[in-house]
Design goal:
Oligomer: single chain
Distance between the termini: 69 Å
Number of domains: 3
Structural class: alpha+beta
Helix content: 40-55%
Amino acid sequence: MMQERRRLAIARVKGIREESRLEPPFTRYFQSVAEFLLMVEENRQQLEKGLLRQASLEELKARNEELYRDVLPEYYTESYGNPKTARERLGEGYGQILSALYAEERSLIVYSYAGAMSACVIRLELFLLFYTAFLEAAEEGGLPEVDRLKEIYYWFACDYAEALLEDAVSRQFEPEGNYVKELLEESDLSDLRYLYRYGEYVTHNEHRLASYMNALPEETVALMADTYTEGYRKGFEVARKDLSRKKTVNIIYALGMERMVKKAMENFRAMGLTAIPYPAPVSFMGGRKLYKNGISGAVANRQFEYDHEYDLALYLDARYCARKLDAYKAVLEKYREQTSLMGGPAVIEKFGEPGFVPEQSDANLRLDEQGQKCFVEYQSAARTLLNRYVKGEERSFTIIAFPVPAIGEKFEDVFEETIRLNTLDYELYKRCQQAIIDVLDGAAYVRIRGAGKNRTDLKVALPPLADPGSQTNFENCVADVNIPVGEVFTSPKLEGTKGVLHVPEIFLQGLEYLDLELVFEDGCIVSYGCANFESKEEGRKLIRENLLHNHDTLPMGEFAIGTNTTAYMAAKRLQIADVLPILIAEKMGPHFAIGDTCFSREEEVETFNPDGKKMMAKENAFSAQRKTDSGKAYFNCHTDITIPYNELEAIVAVDAGGGRTPIILNGRFVVPGSEELNKPFDE
């Protein structure tokens, strides 16, 4: 049946290419999108016949470039994928909606490589629904009402809510039929043509990374994979969770890292785990975001991703969210067994790509106040629902990061240095960090002050310990779930936590923020701003959407002191501090997470430091509501913001009597027992 629907849809799209039954601007739009869809269909047929397996590397490069050309930066001003351009050509309302439609249709590129026939067919039919609406209006001498077009989008999203969610859930939890898993198992990685089997955009960056990985000695690749998979195993061990109850693990990586990934899959298999590669969402309806959460290639144009991140504004309302939650519950129930066997994600992050400062446009679709409220409520309810099937007290994770060639001429030096950082002395950091924790556990609050251009002045309150002999407020974090080593962290007491957090320049999830400032009262953000744009309001909008995730405020969910001075000095020596991922950057000074605590939805799970002390600071005033009002307990986000050592005047622990014990002064550790952390500064 689906084959027949596809045949009929493609036949109709071919007809549109030849028709001129609409006003010229709209005829040009529908013909242009029809041409794109037919190009994707021709490519799909080549895939189905196996002809692309025989194509040369140069032929595959050319085909990949052709599929993505329209949204590349150099062509974007002429693309219907650009909401501003579409509005200029098609008019207010029509331009934004039809730009969103085209952006959604572009997901067919990856879906066709994945063999996801249903996902392709329903989007072809969505395109035809819009064309039909314009034809019907043209017969009456006009254009369809904008609200009518929004209605088409709305009912499509509602009608296919379950299908869209099943696509996402099956890719995450079902090992059978996973096209990336099959690709990894079948491919000869020495033949770089395999990079084009994903359907993702591929550049010189992915080519060079894959070539570099292929040239590494086997023992180096094994060390990288072992560090990654052992961190995952240790995560279960340290948290006293039973790994033997789990049968699957999600793996996430950037194209080019496949040689390490294949070795890691062998390691996981030896642990009794089947690795399920998790591709990043490619559909904006399916959760595609600027920050790629899943396996992905190069981003063809980050401005395009940013412009369409909130296309769901076309159909998001309370009724749709209720429908989607019902559908999500049905899908999770269908995959109940698979979700119960999932151990959690093992992530290989990439870093080194230049930061991105988006251009703002009033043509972009954005959520209004009511839409933001619906979005936040849905996210919270969906996360709570998922936690019933993938229980926090049973799962774990691990994250490790490696550079990509886009980092520049020093790529190979940075890669080698990153391997060294990921395998630093576990015992050394454990000892030094314990000395710091012993001081912090005697504090009522911690005072943090910035230096130079950094205007930070914060007081972070800590909960009292009933039995300091057996309890602790700070976790001694070494190399398990969070690689590399190097931090002690806690969930602050919100009451009494106040002040200004400021960083002159920082990159967070691919976006650059200039003069980022957050002001806290009783642990919650009361005002915020940045200097990215001339308009302060545009800066606030950027922060609200991408750091506050459309919440009115967020609490300080974590306070931590990074201790990895080796990473800090390596970053200075190699001049890469501005492109490091937060995973490494957070270890290079104090950091503060806005959103949920590190123990979100795992507050009841007992955890202990290596010295045997029980971790007590696992919740705050918000998460304490989890049993009475779960909708107010969690924010479903956690973003770390780091102050580097060179921007730090002091971190001082202050006890209940006002006694002050410095932890860091002028960027150097001063707690007895932590002096070895200063060696990299001197070397």
